[in-house]
Amino acid sequence: MNTILTGRENEISTLKKALASTEAEMISVIGRRRVGKTFLIHSVYEKEIAFEISGLQYANRTDQLRNFQQQLRIAFPTIPGRSLPKDWLDAFFQLTEALDATDDGKKKRVIFFDEVPWLATHRGKFLMGLSYFWNSWAVRRNVVVVICGSAASWMIKKILRDKGGLHNRVTRRIRLQPFNLANTRAYLKARHINLNQRQLLLLYMAMGGIPHYLKEIEPGESAAQAIDRICFSEDGLLRDEFSALYPALFDQSESHVKVIRALSKTQQGYDRQQLIEVTRMADGGYLSRVLEELTESGFISIYPIYGKKKKGLRYRLTDQYSSFYLRFIEPNTYGGSGSFMALGQTPAYKSWCGYAFETVCLQHIPQLKNALKIGGIFVQPSTFYQVGNKENPGAQIDLLLDRNDGVINLVEIKFHDGPLRLNKAIITGLTKKQLVFQTAVKARKQLSWVVIAADGAVASPDSLGIVNHYFSSDILFQED
């Protein structure tokens, strides 16, 4: 079954505009492993790519240059064979000569460098060669140079923020994100997989919106069947994907995995000091780099704690697959097929679903804003968390939307089988949370409760005047 390009309208438009422009263009494409970067470029530029090379993981400079030599032969078969380049500068000399020799002047050509962080080996001077290629040749030609990489932090530091020859040379930027729920539904539908929203939500909570993962789902499967086969069977793609995921992106990935493992064990997330205590990593620049790299690559997210300016940032694991893997796949490595059919009925899984659904909601704030009809209002998302003690009760509010129209939406998120009735116990809990919040931050804005329940919520006499908006997961499937 051929994969169909869906859900990438803005990115497609950016690529086509670069192709149609009358100037040389350099495009950076950043996105985590398996998110579909290479497929996007091939789908849009298939007929225009004159040369492409993808870096080899764990290869040294000599091996990367041998790979370059082979790709040059494939791209330009009519040009006599070239010797192995002495270095990257020599490699780019050979490339420019081949491109000039085959230029018919009829159309704009694309030169595609994939997995650039792997090409740029330590002391390999690939970036020096790339800088020469752009500044001395490409900038005066009718070309599009695409630079692609999965290591987001590396791409930002070495390409986008470069202070040398590549400084301000990137003309267009693409940050390829995982599919949201609407894109996921469209992608699967294009593959003739029609699932209702509950089934799609269960899949999304386990593997996120990564196209390469979603491609494994087969028509006719339920969410439980797909998760069981893909994540627990001996040949399942996601059974051991975790072990390759982080080393492919980060040097010294053991530290990154240590942070991910720590965050997988908390529903509230950790602030920096808590992470230091749990991971036993030293405070300093190295920890900052690890956290930045995980954030830039989309594995963790930072949420401010309302009312706390100092130490008010909380880190949370927001990569669905990593969370699901550490909670269920890894502890059941040898369970084999059928494992999830049993795990899916356990209290542990149902409890985890609450956390996973909350994460999904946090990733779909634009959809929530549209449902509240505040899409045009500036909103600062945050969370609230106060540890209780003898003097003050504790409280946690899943999400706050601090609006510049004088309102703060307090959002309660529930994953529940069937519609959630907003009974007296629930409303009493919300009222207590609001009182703790009001006392702690002395907010002057209007406070308004919003409830998001997976299967919707049902008002009751107790909720009148307390909960002003209640939604089902339907709102999360809307386009941005």
Automatic annotation (TrEMBL):
This protein's superkingdom? Bacteria
Residues annotated as domain ATPase? 7-216
User: Where does the sequence pass through the membrane?
Assistant: none
Q: Which GO terms describe its molecular function?
A: ATP binding
Known Pfam families for this protein? ATPase_2
Classification via InterPro entries: ATPase_dom (IPR011579), P-loop_NTPase (IPR027417)
Provide the protein name: ATPase domain-containing protein
Protein species of origin: Neolewinella agarilytica
